[in-house]
Amino acid sequence: MNDVPDSKPDMRNRSLRRRDALTGDERRAKSLAIATHGAEALAAEIPGKCVAGYHPIRSEADVGLLMALLEKAGAELALPAVIDRETIVFRAFRSGEELVAGGFGTRAPGEDAGEVDPDILLMPLSVFDEAGNRIGYGAGHYDRAIARLAARGRKPFLVGIAFDLQEVPSVPAEPHDVPLDAIITESGFGRTENGD
Ligand SMILES: Nc1nc2c(c(=O)[nH]1)N(C=O)[C@@H](CNc1ccc(C(=O)N[C@@H](CCC(=O)O)C(=O)O)cc1)CN2
Ligand SMILES: Nc1ncnc2c1ncn2[C@@H]1O[C@H](COP(=O)(O)OP(=O)(O)OP(=O)(O)O)[C@@H](O)[C@H]1O
């Protein structure tokens, strides 16, 4: 046996291969369960809060229904838009509003939508562990957005969104990585040790 730790890209590739192998029906059923768990856990504290979700790409969990439920519970919504290779911003959004190409295959509100600082980030994950360490797609977009919000004194509640099959025993954390406060999968909503 060897004790060499897995590289982040290897862990990401393996996890994304498992996620890609889900059927459309499985993804829809699991996304529905994620919406139910997320709405139940977050609805009470949501009125007036700004929640940034995402428009799914590749085989990501679809948080469209969760966003709509949170909007109904009183949330303002936002979606990320890529403005350059290193930077995403969050733009205000209402369910059903038209979106434009948002970079990297994503869809986002256009430039005329107001830029907002979210209170809650629903973050798509490639890989995660129980402690709330995560790997995204490797661009550092979310890490930098969180650092930028922190520099303005904002500390959004970070909620990872993934399927159970994306969990691993341990994700190697680097100094710039900010751990998740909570994780929602099809089996439930769980706060991590950071999210108390
Ligand atoms: N749905 C969704 N929207 C999002 C993100 C996301 O992860 N998911 N983002 C999260 O930051 C930002 C966009 N950044 C992205 C950065 C890279 C890739 C991507 O697919 N990159 C590589 C794959 C890398 C790999 O497989 O190792 C590619 O282009 O193929 C996608 C989005 C904001 N919006
Ligand atoms: N706060 C930051 N400031 C500057 N560079 C950063 C910051 N956070 C991450 N980066 C850079 O971004 C790159 C990708 O980081 P990492 O591998 O952690 O991506 P990731 O967590 O998969 O991406 P994401 O945050 O978009 O989900 C790295 O080269 C890293 O140095």
TrEMBL record:
InterPro entries: FTHF_cligase, FTHF_cligase-like_sf, NagB/RpiA_transferase-like. Its EC number is 6.3.3.2. PANTHER family: 5-FORMYLTETRAHYDROFOLATE CYCLO-LIGASE, ATPASE INHIBITOR/5-FORMYLTETRAHYDROFOLATE CYCLO-LIGASE. The keyword Nucleotide-binding applies. It is an enzyme of class 6 (ligase). This is 5-formyltetrahydrofolate cyclo-ligase. Belongs to the 5-formyltetrahydrofolate cyclo-ligase family. Pfam families: 5-FTHF_cyc-lig. It catalyses: (6S)-5-formyl-5,6,7,8-tetrahydrofolate + ATP = (6R)-5,10-methenyltetrahydrofolate + ADP + phosphate. Substrate binds at E60. SUPFAM superfamilies: NagB/RpiA/CoA transferase-like (SSF100950). Its cofactor is Mg(2+). Keywords: ATP-binding, Ligase, Magnesium, Metal-binding, Nucleotide-binding. One of its GO terms (molecular function) is ATP binding. One of its GO terms (biological process) is tetrahydrofolate interconversion. Residues 1-22 are annotated as: Disordered. The keyword NAD does not apply. ATP binds at K8, P9, D10, M11, R12, R134, I135, G136, Y137, G138, A139, G140, H141, Y142.
